[in-house]
Design brief:
The protein folds into 2 domains: 122 residues, D-Maltodextrin-Binding Protein, domain 2 (3-Layer(aba) Sandwich); 129 residues, Periplasmic binding protein-like II (D-Maltodextrin-Binding Protein, domain 2, 3-Layer(aba) Sandwich). Strands 1, 4, 5, 6, 8, 9, 10, 11 and 12 form a 9-stranded mixed β-sheet that branches. It has 11 helices and 13 strands. The protein is an alpha/beta fold.
């Protein structure tokens, strides 16, 4: 509204100036004045839009049900309540739901007042990661224990898997060569691994599940195929729960879960292997003036207790 009034006043001043000086100005002078006014208006509008105002409502962005990242996030920040053996997700109904890491990042990058969370290994400069309880979201801080918002990356196979190519690929992931790929992509590698000794099989392998694991899995597939191009590996990015159910029913040879496997999944004959440790980065828009929050402040936002930014920051 202030912008419209400014433009209206500016237009009236221009008209008054033209009337006072008569019609002696030529067409080029009129165009020059209009261009100057337009430039000033654009600059003012840009300055207004760049002022981050903490009185604005928080745009809360979360992941879909079945996401391993969501499951780990609500557990780590206490955004769940126990009702007997059942755990109830207390994420506010006002949260916008995204179905992948990339959509989460795009949503937060496009909204100055948004907050979300992603795999630390997927973090790029399109968004800003917050300090949590005073610790920066880095792989080094996850490894040292200073940054406590972390979870395991698991792959799951059937106990009696008979796909030689799939087993060879799993062996590669858990080798020195595979874990170097993990480390090079900013995740915490597994200790005490040995050089890869492949069997050079051929065949097809279907890997699917967590979209948080998918980026590093792509790198692992690329590195493995450089060693053994005879194996075709198909990657399907879905979510952790789909990764486990599809491995149980045989649609996937290898499932991906960015959380611990549930007892019900293990009872269906799945075997879990931790391939890495990953942090969960809490992200905001790059224009936000917020740089740090506590675990309790995150909880108050995602349970809907805090509605505006000035309710959690000074």
């Amino acid at each position: 509204m202030r912008m419209k009034k400014f433009i209206a006043v500016l237009s009236m001043v221009s008209m008054f100036t033209i009337a006072a000086t008569g019609c002696t100005g030529n067409a080029s002078e009129d165009k020059s004045a209009d261009a100057t006014a337009d430039t000033k208006a654009e600059q003012t509008e840009e300055n207004v839009s760049s002022d981050w105002d903490s009185s604005n409502d928080i745009t809360i962005v979360s992941r879909e049900d079945g996401s391993g990242t969501r499951g780990a996030f609500i557990e780590l920040f206490g955004i769940e309540e126990k009702n007997g053996d059942e755990k109830i997700d207390m994420t506010t109904q006002e949260a916008q739901i995204t179905n992948s890491t990339s959509v989460m990042m795009t949503t937060v990058a496009g909204d100055e007042y948004a907050i979300g969370y992603i795999s630390l290994g997927s973090l790029d400069d399109s968004v800003k990661a917050l300090k949590i309880d005073g610790a920066k979201a880095t792989a080094e801080n996850v490894k040292s224990g200073d940054y406590k918002v972390s979870r395991p990356f698991n792959i799951a196979t059937k106990e009696e898997m008979d796909n030689e190519a799939a087993q060879d690929f799993v062996n590669f992931i858990m080798s020195e060569e595979g874990q170097k790929v993990i480390e090079d992509n900013h995740y915490i590698a597994v200790d005490d691994v040995k050089p890869f000794e492949g069997t050079n099989p051929s065949g097809k392998v279907v890997v699917g599940g967590s979209s948080s694991i998918s980026p590093v899995m792509e790198k692992l597939i690329e590195a493995y195929k450089a060693i053994n191009p005879k194996v075709e590996i198909e990657l399907q990015a879905t979510d952790s729960t789909t990764g486990m159910t599809s491995t149980i029913d045989g649609s996937y040879d290898i499932g991906m879960a960015s959380r611990e496997l549930k007892d019900t999944e293990l009872s269906e004959g799945l075997k879990a292997t931790v391939i890495a440790t990953d942090g969960i980065a809490v992200i905001v828009n790059k224009n936000s003036t917020v740089d740090e929050l506590s675990s309790e402040q995150i909880k108050s936002i995602y349970t809907g207790e805090a509605l505006a930014w000035d309710e959690v920051i000074e």
